[in-house]
Write a structure and sequence with these properties.
Layout: H1 2-16, E1 29-33, E2 38-44, H2 57-65, E3 68-71, H3 75-79, H4 81-91, H5 99-116, H6 130-144, H7 153-164, E4 168-170, H8 174-182, H9 186-201, H10 204-215, H11 219-233, H12 235-257, E5 263-268, H13 278-284, E6 288-291
Length: 298
């Protein structure tokens, strides 16, 4: 009896040590088909943790069968140190007046609270435009949650494509992505900063919830938790960073569909979801679309 209890205690201790994320993430993966080829659309979380791997078998199968991969940015550009320098240069303030004047008293006070909490060095943000401050704060907030851009799904598959000798390309050049941000008017930049501050001020629970919804493959939850809120509170920002880019990417995706090889496309999950997402836009153009998710069928 004593041995049985000891074995049971050891088993319970072992189970307690299993990480919460023991199962692979449920993928946000869709197959878009024409008569002779398919696009696999995979929704990425750009920063992940080590225990977000391994991935679901259907994702690995889509990668194995793909002749080429497509990302938001070409992998060579994404990995170039020059990209960060170009973004910093584009983000430096050139407009007259001060950042404090640009933001107004309420938004400035919220930013100052983040600086006081150590999210940014004192005085650093005053050199840059609000869009760049927002990006920096967002990355820092995710990093505090233990998430790493080098472990993001897009970076993972960029390395996998290189190792397998599969060609890879981008949906937009880095210059277009930088121009998208730097071309925001001040109202849009304030919206972007306010959206990131909303996220950070809600505490780690909201970031954990979004990460958890991605892991659960909860397309509806992510749509309502990110896109619907952004549409309502920050419509100009939503139109610029989501709708306009999706519309620009559609012709590129259709050119890939016109070929004979299967293609794996890895982009931020928001770009796939809802009526403005690539999944529904391609469905509306007459392609066959189905979600590939074995866990969803259980």
């Amino acid at each position: 009896m004593r041995r049985t209890l000891l074995r049971l205690s050891a088993l319970l201790l072992l189970l307690a040590c299993v990480p919460a994320w023991a199962a692979p993430p449920v993928p946000l993966l869709w197959k878009v088909s024409d008569h002779d080829s398919a696009l696999y659309l995979l929704g990425s979380f750009h920063m992940l943790a080590r225990d977000d791997y391994p991935l679901a078998p259907e994702v690995e199968e889509a990668f194995a069968g793909a002749g080429t991969l497509v990302f938001e940015l070409d992998p060579e550009e994404a990995a170039s140190p020059a990209l960060a320098m170009r973004m910093v240069q584009a983000a430096r303030r050139t407009r007259p007046g001060s950042l404090r004047e640009d933001l107004g008293p309420e938004l400035w006070a919220r930013l100052e609270r983040q600086v006081a909490a150590g999210a940014l060095p004192a005085g650093w943000s005053e050199q840059f435009e609000p869009w760049f401050i927002a990006l920096t704060l967002q990355l820092a907030g995710l990093a505090r949650q233990g998430l790493d851009p080098e472990l993001g799904l897009d970076r993972h598959f960029m390395r996998a494509a290189a190792a397998a000798g599969k060609p890879a390309s981008g949906l937009e050049p880095a210059s277009a992505q930088i121009a998208l941000m730097a071309g925001m008017d001040l109202d849009e930049q304030r919206q972007m900063l306010a959206e990131v501050l909303d996220l950070l001020e809600s505490g780690p629970a909201r970031l954990d919830r979004l990460h958890g919804m991605w892991r659960a493959g909860d397309a509806q939850g992510l749509w309502e938790g990110i896109a619907v809120r952004m549409q309502r509170d920050y419509p100009a920002l939503y139109a610029r960073i989501n709708v306009a880019r999706n519309d620009a990417w559609l012709p590129v995706l259709e050119r890939h569909l016109a070929g004979r090889d299967d293609v794996l496309v890895v982009v931020g999950s928001l770009h796939l979801l809802g009526p403005d997402g690539l999944v529904e836009k391609l469905r509306a153009r007459g392609y066959r679309v189905e979600r590939i998710c074995r866990a969803c069928a259980r």
